[in-house]
Amino acid sequence: RDTRLRRGPRGWVDEETVIEFTKYCAYVAWRLGDLVDEWATFNEPMVVPEAGYMTTQSGFPPGVTDFKALRRAAIHMAVAHARAYDAIKRWDTVKADEDSSSPADIGLIHNVIPIIPLDEERGLDVKAAEFLDRLHNHFFLKAVSEGWLDRDFNGVRDKGEVRSDMRGRLDWLGVNYYTRHVVKGRRSILARLILKITSIPELASGYGFSCKPNSVSADGRPTSDFGWEVYPEGLLKALKAVVGYGKPLYLTENGIADAEDKLRPTYIVEHLKVLDEAINLEGIPVRGYLHWSLTDNYEWAKGFRMKFGLYSVDLETKRRSARRSARLLKKIIEEGGITRKVEREVNP
Fold first, then answer.
1. What is the residue extent of each domain of the chain?
2. Computed from CA positions of residues 94, 95, 101, 106, in that sequence, does the dihedral angle turn out positive or negative?
3. CA-wise closest residue to 109 among 251, 237, 231
């Protein structure tokens, strides 16, 4: 297996990729700076190391189970964001229009996942949830906002982990939200020796991303074509998890794979209700909402099989057709929110 990490392109395991990515960002900022004022360096950066080196069954390259490689890739991507931030600030010096606060506001888009222990009374489950939360939700954000590069993901600021050249490299944050993780912990001597953690996290089947498609979760909630549990209240948990970083937020992805459009109308309404609560009751600074997706799209691990679009796409004729949920979202925008009229459209 290790030879697959030593031959050919090594991606983010190779420190040289940081340099090449920074050069690319500098060039794009120089060429397009007069057209762009808000930049995102990465979309869902933790998916690359996690899916490539940990949850290898997901189909992402290189598909090698290697935690050391995961750690190297995650660290290099965090450093790359910081260096890209500096490069874009240097080379984009022209505002695209006058309503922008600066020529370049730079953020990243992070898939924030509420991580819940299967049994809150079981120490192994709690420890596993805490570890996965640190790794997935907070490692990257702490690195580029606080300058804390938590190299061993232990939640302790060890010597040499705080870097001033990475602190304050975040102007805004995009949040992608779909559902939750429910985890159980498993004892592992190897994990204790290498990672200094007592419990390895495993995703509990029947919850979150680990459900049967077009069924119900272990909690009796509907699941999508992808087998993802519909869990609207998790959106508030996700936003609360990152509001402490003190940055303006955008909900950059939120949607459901639903070819028949049976669940999507209710999904949209319930998640927008939670978003309204987050903004107007909790005071969370969410600046915008982007539904995923406008049209059926290509999914990295599933191709065109999962239908996320408000509009269906005929792959042969390329014809786009509005689903009922597209008309519903149009009505919500026209009404300025979830009104009784909107509710009647969802539940006639």
1. 1-105
2. negative
3. 251
Tokens (6 digits) for 234: 């998790």
Q: Which two tokens stand for residue 152?
A: 């061993």
Q: Which residues are designated catalytic?
A: 44, 253
Per-residue H/E/C for the chain: CHHHHHCCCCHHHCCHHHHHHHHHHHHHHHHHCCCCCEEEEEECCCHHHHHHHCCHHHCCCCCCCCHHHHHHHHHHHHHHHHHHHHHHHHHCCCCCCCCCCCCCEEEEEEECCCEEECCCCCHHHHHHHHHHHHHHHHHHHHHHHCCECCCCCCCCCCCCCECCCCCCCCCEEEEECCCCEEEEEEECHHHHHHCCCCEEEEECCCCCCCCCCCCECCCCCEECCCCCECCCHHHHHHHHHHHCCCCCEEEEECCCCCCCCCCHHHHHHHHHHHHHHHHHCCCCCEEEECCCCCECCCECCCECCCCCCCEEECCCCCCEEECHHHHHHHHHHHHCCCCHHHHHHHCC
Instruction: Give me the tens of pLDDT residue by residue for the chain, a chain 348 residues long.
Output: 455 566 656 899 999 999 999 999 999 999 999 999 999 999 999 999 999 999 888 888 888 888 899 999 999 999 999 999 999 999 999 999 989 989 999 999 999 999 999 999 999 999 999 999 999 999 999 999 999 999 989 898 988 999 999 999 999 999 999 999 999 999 877 666 666 677 889 999 999 999 999 999 999 999 999 999 999 999 999 999 999 999 999 999 999 999 999 999 999 999 999 999 999 999 999 999 999 999 999 998 899 999 999 999 999 999 999 999 999 999 999 999 999 999 988 887
Q: Tokens 């505002």 belong to which residue?
A: 95
Tokens of 245: 């970083």
Q: Which residues contact 297 (CB under 8 A, 6 or more apart)?
A: 304, 308, 309
